[in-house]
């Protein structure tokens, strides 16, 4: 009896080990096969009108080649970590339960109550990566969900846009990940120091445009530019020296998609009933990667940005 119990336990352990070490299943079938990679780029604090006022040639070329709205909306709280978590989980903060906006000295790490799109993609056999300029994004770095990660190491630490771009470029060129999330922090930092809409912030936006150009050049060098969908968006805007609850200047964000199968120079505000929301970034990415639309999602795919989407 004792031996048979041990045998059963051994069999169960071996089965679990075998399941964990079996090769990943084939990737899902994608609805728009020309899109093999997705890069989500969030420029922290990028208010749409500030982006349009800036001299940002990379953004201009994205608009010529892509579909866009400068009236997309972020979460009502309009702060960095809850809003980014909604962007990548497809749900409002009440569902993902990341309500705070700093590194907290939890004894155990706390992750969103709903999986990130990186986690869902990883489980489906995709390679995933994240490069973020603020250490609090560790809340999105659940073990086993990201193949390649760069985050500032110390509590409540931040690095500048140039380092973020450098790290993203390294990952793109070395690994060509299927899904990459990039967070640029400087526009928000300068907004808090000098004001949203200030000339110093405009300079930070223009500098961010140069980093975007470097990221696009790295997609070229990696040979994946023509198979990559890039979504450029933000977590919130701002007013004065801050951003926050349900102020229109904080809630509006840009949402620009560029890549194969995307409509060219297409302003999504032509569609009166379409309001793009930050949760739609997750839903759109899931759709493009052939992942299911979860019934709990608050976001939906922005089908209208794509040719022959349905
Ligand atoms: Zn901020």
Main features:
310 residues; alpha/beta; Alkaline Phosphatase, subunit A; 8-stranded mixed sheet; 8 strands; 14% strand; binds zinc ion
Report on the structure:
Helix 4 (80-89) packs parallel to helix 11, helix 7 (161-175) runs parallel beside helix 9 and helix 8 runs antiparallel to helix 9. The chain is globular. The chain has 310 residues and is an alpha/beta fold. It has helices at 2-21, 48-53, 57-65, 80-89, 93-96, 117-123, 161-175, 186-194, 199-222, 248-251, 279-288, and strands at residues 37-43, 67-73, 128-132, 148-150, 179-184, 228-233, 252-258, 266-267. It has one domain (35-227, 247-274, 282-305): Alkaline Phosphatase, subunit A, CATH 3.40.720. The model is unreliable at 11-20 (pLDDT under 50). The protein binds zinc ion. The site of zinc ion (ZN) has 5 residues, from helix 8.
Quick recap of the structure?
With 310 residues, the chain is of the alpha/beta class.
C-alpha-based Rg, rounded: 20 Å
Please name the CATH architecture: 3-Layer(aba) Sandwich
* Count of separate DSSP helical elements: 11
The CATH class, by name, is Alpha Beta
- Quaternary organisation: single chain
> What small molecules does this complex bind?
zinc ion
In round numbers, the mean pLDDT is 92
**Percent strand:** 5-15%
CATH H-level superfamily title = Alkaline Phosphatase, subunit A
Enumerate the strands of the largest sheet in spatial order, edge to edge or round the barrel. 4-3-5-1-6-7-2-8
Helix content: 25-40%
Shape: globular
Secondary-structure element series: HEHHEHHHEEHEHHEHEEH
Structural class: alpha/beta
- Domain count, please report it: 1
The main sheet comes to: 8 strands, mixed
């Amino acid at each position: 009896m004792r031996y048979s119990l041990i045998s059963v336990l051994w069999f169960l352990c071996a089965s679990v080990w075998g399941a964990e070490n079996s090769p990943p299943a084939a990737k899902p079938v994608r609805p728009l096969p020309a899109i093999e990679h997705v890069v989500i780029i969030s420029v922290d604090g990028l208010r749409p009108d500030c982006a349009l006022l800036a001299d940002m040639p990379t953004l201009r070329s994205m608009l010529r080649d892509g579909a866009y709205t400068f009236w997309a909306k972020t979460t009502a709280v309009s702060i960095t970590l809850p809003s980014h978590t909604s962007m990548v989980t497809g749900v409002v903060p009440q569902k993902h339960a990341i309500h705070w906006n700093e590194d907290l000295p939890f004894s155990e790490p706390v992750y969103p109550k709903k999986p990130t799109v990186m986690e869902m993609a990883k489980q489906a056999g995709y390679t995933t990566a994240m490069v973020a300029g603020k250490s609090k994004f560790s809340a999105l770095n659940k073990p086993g969900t990201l193949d390649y990660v760069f985050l500032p190491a110390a509590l409540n630490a931040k690095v500048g846009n140039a380092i973020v771009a450098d790290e993203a470029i390294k990952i793109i060129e070395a690994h060509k990940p299927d899904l990459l999330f990039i967070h640029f922090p400087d526009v928000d930092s300068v907004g808090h120091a000098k004001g949203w809409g200030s000339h110093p912030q405009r300079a930070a936006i223009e500098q961010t445009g140069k980093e975007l150009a470097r990221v696009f050049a790295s997609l070229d060098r990696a040979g994946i530019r023509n198979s990559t969908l890039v979504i450029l968006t933000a977590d919130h805007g701002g007013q004065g020296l801050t951003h926050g609850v349900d102020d229109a200047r904080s809630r509006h964000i840009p949402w620009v998609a560029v890549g194969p199968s995307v409509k060219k120079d297409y302003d999504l505000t032509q569609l009166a009933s379409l309001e793009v929301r930050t949760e739609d970034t997750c839903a759109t990415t899931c759709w493009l990667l052939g992942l299911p639309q979860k019934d709990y999602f608050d976001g939906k795919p922005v089908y209208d940005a794509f040719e022959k989407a349905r």
